[in-house]
Structure formats: C-alpha cells, structure tokens
Amino acid sequence: MISVEEALQIVIDSAQDFGVEEIPFIQSAGRILKEQIKADRDFPPFNRVAMDGIAIAYSSFKNGQRSFKIEGIQAAGSEQISLQNLENCIEVMTGAVLPNKCDAVIRYEDVFIENGIATISIDAVTDGQNIHQKGKDEKAGDVLIKQNTIISAAEIGVLATVGKSTVKVAKQPKVMIVSTGDELVAVDDVPLAHQIRRSNVFTLVSLLEKLHIPSETAHLTDDKPILKEKIKSFLATYDVLLFSGAVSKGKFDFLPEVLAELGVVKSFHKVAQRPGKPFWFGQTKNSSVFAFPGNPISTFVNCLAYFYPWYFKSIGVELQEENAILSEDVSFKPNLAYFLQVQLSYRYGHLIASPITGNGSGDLASLVKADAFIQLPANQNEFKKGEVFKIIRYR
Amino acid sequence: MISVEEALQIVIDSAQDFGVEEIPFIQSAGRILKEQIKADRDFPPFNRVAMDGIAIAYSSFKNGQRSFKIEGIQAAGSEQISLQNLENCIEVMTGAVLPNKCDAVIRYEDVFIENGIATISIDAVTDGQNIHQKGKDEKAGDVLIKQNTIISAAEIGVLATVGKSTVKVAKQPKVMIVSTGDELVAVDDVPLAHQIRRSNVFTLVSLLEKLHIPSETAHLTDDKPILKEKIKSFLATYDVLLFSGAVSKGKFDFLPEVLAELGVVKSFHKVAQRPGKPFWFGQTKNSSVFAFPGNPISTFVNCLAYFYPWYFKSIGVELQEENAILSEDVSFKPNLAYFLQVQLSYRYGHLIASPITGNGSGDLASLVKADAFIQLPANQNEFKKGEVFKIIRYR
C-alpha cells in the first residue's frame, strides 16, 4: 500500500498527450489554449477618443482660447478627418479615431455649446487628455494570451478582438466510464429489496462534464469472461477507462485480474487513504485505467484527487493548490490520509472549512451537504481548529 | 447618479420569474433544482455488507467460537439468504444484503480460510461491525436535496439513486445580446484603420454560458429608426436584453432615448463606479434591459456585478459573498466605487487579491492577467494592504 503522495506522483508522471485540435473560438470556453495569441495590431489601433466631447489643438487652449467653432463630427467607425483651422474644434465620440491635428479631448460635461460654438467651462485641461494612445495597452506582436491558458470569457473577448475565429486547443481524451456490480439497476427501474440504482457512473459523467470532457458509459455484470471481452474492446477504443467497483477483495472483484490478463500494467493497487483505499491504477501503451472502489464517496473523491490532476497535467495546465482553515478539532486514528467532507465559507478573507459528519463511504447523500474535501495527512491523528490543509472543491 | 449599493438593490428587487421545466437528470448539472428530492426508501435500503469477508452470528463468536464452516455466499445483487446453522458462516461481498441471522462481518484480512472452514485470527470483533445499517444515512421520506440547490455532480448521484430520471429545474431566461457601434466589424473581417472587431457580445455569451444560459446575438448600426424597430421586436421575444454601447453622452448614443420611446421604464442611468459608470437599467412588464457601456471592461464587470446577482435572485439562489485580502496599498481619488482587477492566490487559508495594473476600461487584454475584481467602496480613497473587500470572480 502506498501513500497518497506517492500515488499522486505516479498518476501525474503517467500523464498522456491527446494532441491538439482547432475549433471555433466561441466554443472554446473551458478548453486549454494550445497556441500563443499575439496582438495583430497595436491596442488601441489608433489614438482613440476616450470620452464624448470636443477635440481641440491643445496649443490653442494653452494660448488662452476658450471658445471653439465646431468644424465637424468624428463618429466612431468613421475615417479620420482633420481639423482644418487650429482655432476650431471637432465633436468626437467615444471609440472614434482622434481627428488629425487634435491633441486633447474635453468631455461634454465640461463644455457649453451654443450656435455652433463650444465654450470650455473648466481651466484644467492637459495635453493629450481623454485620449487612449495608440499602442498604449499592447504593441502589435505582443503576446496577449499564453499557451496552456484555460480559456474563459476574458480570453474569448481577446480572441474575438484579434480575429481568431478558430483556435487551437488541447484535444479531450476519449473516456469510457464503466460500472460493475450485480446489485445495480437502471435509474428508471424500481429496485428489488437487495438492489440499488446505478449512480456512480452519472456522478463521474458530471465530474468530467465540469472539465468539458464528454464521456460514454457502460454497465458490466460481475462475470469474468464478459468483463474481459468488453474491457478488451474498450482498451482498443478509449484513452481513459474509469471503473467504479470490483477492485476490492470480494469473490467477484475480477477487475485487477482481468486488467492484468489484458496487459494493463499495474502502477499500484491500494492507497493509504480513507475513503477510497482499494484504488487501482495502471496503463497500456495508449490507455490509462483508473479503477475506483465502488462506494459512492470513494469513486467521487478518487476522481477528484487523481483523475483531475492527471488530466490537467496531460493537457499542460498547472493549477494552484487551494487550502483552507479547519473550523474545529478533528480526530482520526487510522494511519491513513483522510479526505473529509467540508462546507466552505469566507470570513474576513479567510477560507474556512467546516467538517460535515457523514456515515462513511457509502453515504452518497452527505456529499450534497458539503462543497469540498479537506485532505488530512497520514501520520497525524489530531487535527486542530485553525490548522491549514489542502482542499479539493467540487462545487 | 446612484451608488453601487443602490443600483444593485434596485436590480435585485427587479428579479423576474422564468418558470419551471422538467429535464433529464443527466442534463441538469449547473441548473437550479425546483423541487425537493426525498429518499424513496431507506438509505441504505437494507443492512448492507460494508466489507468483503464472512458474516456470522455474533453470539457464536461471543461464546468463544473462532472457526466457522462456510455455508454459502451472499453476493451483491443476490436475494437475501439465511444462515441455516448459527455456528456456520456465509461469505459476503461489499454491497450485498447481510444474510438473515447474521449480525457481524469479519473482513477477509482478519480471516484464514482452508477446506471450507473460516478461522478468525483476531480477538476484537464487535456486534454489528462492518454492517452499514438500513436507514442509517437517511430514512424514506427524508429530504436529500433542498429546493433551489445548484445541481452539481453530488446531486446528480443522488438523483440517480432515488430514481429521478427527470427533474424540475428553473427555466433559463431567453436572452438577446446586442452590440452597437459603427466602428465594429466581424471577427472574420480585417478591420480598417478606424475600425475594431466585435468582442463584447462574445464575452457576454461566454459569461452567460458559465451560468448555462444560452443566448443569441445581434449587431445594430448607430441608426435610430433601425435601432427602434429591432429593439421593439427583441422586447416582444426575449426576457432579457443585454446591450453593449450607445448609453453614454455621444451624438449617436440613441439607446436611452429609444428605450424610453418603446416604453421601457428606466430604473437608473449611471452608477457611481469605475469602470462602467453609464450603465442603464430598466424594465417592461416582461423584459429586463441591461444596457452596459461599450468599453470592454465596463461591459464585463457590469455583467458580473449586476446581471449575475439579478439572475441568481430570479431563480431563487442565494450565493455567499466572497471576500479577499488586498496585497498592497491602493489609492483611488474619485468618489466612485472602484472595481479593480486582481489576481487571486491562496496562502495559509487566506485568499489574497493582488491588483493588476491595466490602462482603463478599454484595456481588454488586461482581463486575461486577472481572475477577479475587488470592489473598493466609494467614500474612501486609500485602501491599505491587509484590508478585506468583496471580490467578484470570473474564473
């Protein structure tokens, strides 16, 4: 049995590369950018009027002039015009090109207009005011978005601005999610007394959906030849297999055996943690196999604690570790890492983790009451209020 | 001009109800639950074996017996069997029904099996051990998920477990996103010297996508009759109109005028904030109109600071306010609330907000460098390192 830290390191070192694809930029939110995005021109691309008002030659104002005949209008989206007479002015709109020969903009609030004459009502006007200078934000060729950025609404806006109607992103892995266990019936079925409905595969589908990874699902009976045949075909088709169940010590827990027979090389089986100890991980040349124990919380936390980091490493994303402050003392005797469900709250810039008492790894409903797991290390039995530990959010 | 606090209160008080719809549970992640989810049976629904091993009558162990003849196997998914002879045992698998007449489970690790006889190798066995008692987690009829919960992977699992193959959720608003401004060209176009590409509508589409709200987009020229005709038809069709641009003091900023002529009742125009001051908000009987100023950061922050809370209020969700600790002194002279872009980091359970220096509301690329806005209140000019303020995340 290995430690959580060792298991995580092995999983991360086994990251795969799924390649790159080009997709419409508007569909790219949540995906990982696989090219550098550079400015195609200066930003702003011209001396840009930043306020609605009048544009003047600053020299005239400096010479004491306060009233300016309006020569014309420079609208946003119109070609640049020129001030013909330096003692006149041009009405200008936010977003317009600054007219030629002008070098200050006075906003309407500070101007009085009558009979085609604009009179400035303030004394403080500075050279270049209310002008967003060409290239001030970015120069043509500057990197605006780094490769391996997770694309959010902010990046979508920049992609649009530089004309990237399609964009290169990390391809997503092809994932098959498999449940086993003869006690499981479909969601639509009414279970008999000794049966329960399938739920883990749907939880996993949803956890992957959060990463924008589509997935397929299958249910296999606890029958070794059938398991073997099906899994063989899955290994040929998918980058990732996620299993729930059949990895423990039960008479029908054929999975480790079947995976070995199919040439999946085991990296480890069992991690010193609760819940989710019998976690099995291995790989073929082209596929990674995460076989999670079948208890709902075991499957859930292992997906978050191992599959998520493996995926982020695979696509080139480094995430910041989040940590939080324990709100009360916790005692945990076994020499195992303990993934404890917590509610998160914010107080004065502190992130507080309040433990939720569940009834062990089978208590699916207890997940609804929490927001995250706090990861309490092995080799420590008493965890004090105020101590800080890593958390793994799921909301 | 009203304060940010007043504006937000008005917006929240103007929340709409979009009704309820029933959708497949597997498509419901991110949506808001509009029914109570109750346990359809006890959880666990039977005395559930929690470890692979053997089940015995505890009384026999208590009487000193350590070796038990194996009578049979109780697999997960099989009907409950009975222990025929109280001095025998039954092999049991995790997830199985506890056999009748048994009341303790000893895991395989603590048992030695030879010639059909299981011998227990430990002395500490307790009555009921390794049995997850029927109804221990939840009783039939207990509320498992409250109405108005945002559905996440955890809730998806519970919905599956109780057989809710379809689920009632809040309907999403029908949203039209409209850009104005004659300087704007399509993402695929090469802009002329005085033009720029449309980007705000796509940023808004993406910000709404984060809320699982689909939206449509349109671009209108700065022509009053056209604006009026189009907006009239939008008001008849959509629950929400989001505008970007044409709300300031420019000669072609027809929007407030057109909206008034179309019977949209103005709640306010202009909020004491930077960026995004000329924000206009109003309603008809059936539609809400958020008209954001056209600078990219103004549109972005107003959507987060006003549309998001309005939406959550409309669908019945109360969100916790997040706050963070300022990492350095900030000085801001105008008597306006200041939405300052910040990078977030975690240190010892503290959420730290580090300001990003941008070049004002036109500097779209600066959004890429930050994670959130920190909201610095008006009526204060100096903000000290270590002070705590509300933040609005966008990643």
Short key terms for the protein model shown above:
homodimer; 395 residues; alpha/beta; Molybdenum Cofactor Biosythetic Enzyme, Chain A; Molybdopterin biosynthesis moea protein, domain 2; Molybdopterin biosynthesis moeA protein, domain 3; 4 domains; 6-stranded mixed beta sheet; 7 helices
- Gyration radius from CA atoms of chain A, angstroms: 31 Å
**Beta-strand fraction estimate of chain A:** 25-35%
> Helix count of chain A, per DSSP?
7
**Strand ordering within the main sheet of chain A:** 7-4-6-5-9-8
Give the number of DSSP strands of chain A: 28
CATH class of the largest domain in chain A: Alpha Beta
Structural class of chain A: alpha/beta
Question: Ends of chain A: how far apart?
Answer: 30 Å
Mean pLDDT level of chain A: 95
Provide the number of structural domains of chain A: 4
Low-confidence stretches of chain A: none
Protein name (chains A, B): Molybdopterin molybdenumtransferase
Catalytic activity (chains A, B): adenylyl-molybdopterin + molybdate = Mo-molybdopterin + AMP + H(+)
Enzyme class (chains A, B): transferase
Domain MoaB/Mog (chains A, B): 176-313
Protein topology:
The structure is a homodimer of 395-residue chains.
Chain A: H1 4-13, E1 20-24, E2 37-38, E3 48-49, E4 53-56, H2 58-62, E5 67-74, E6 88-92, E7 104-107, E8 111-114, E9 117-120, E10 131-132, E11 143-145, H3 153-161, E12 166-170, E13 175-180, E14 184-185, E15 196-197, H4 200-209, E16 215-220, H5 224-237, E17 240-244, H6 255-261, E18 265-269, E19 273-274, E20 280-283, E21 288-292, H7 296-315, E22 322-326, E23 330-331, E24 337-347, E25 350-355, E26 372-376, E27 382-383, E28 388-393
Parallel strand pairs in A: 5-6, 13-16, 13-17, 14-15, 17-21, 19-24, 22-25
Antiparallel strand pairs in A: 1-12, 2-11, 3-10, 4-6, 4-7, 5-9, 8-9, 18-20, 20-21, 22-28, 23-27, 24-25, 24-26, 26-28
Helix pairs in contact in A: 1-7, 4-7, 5-6
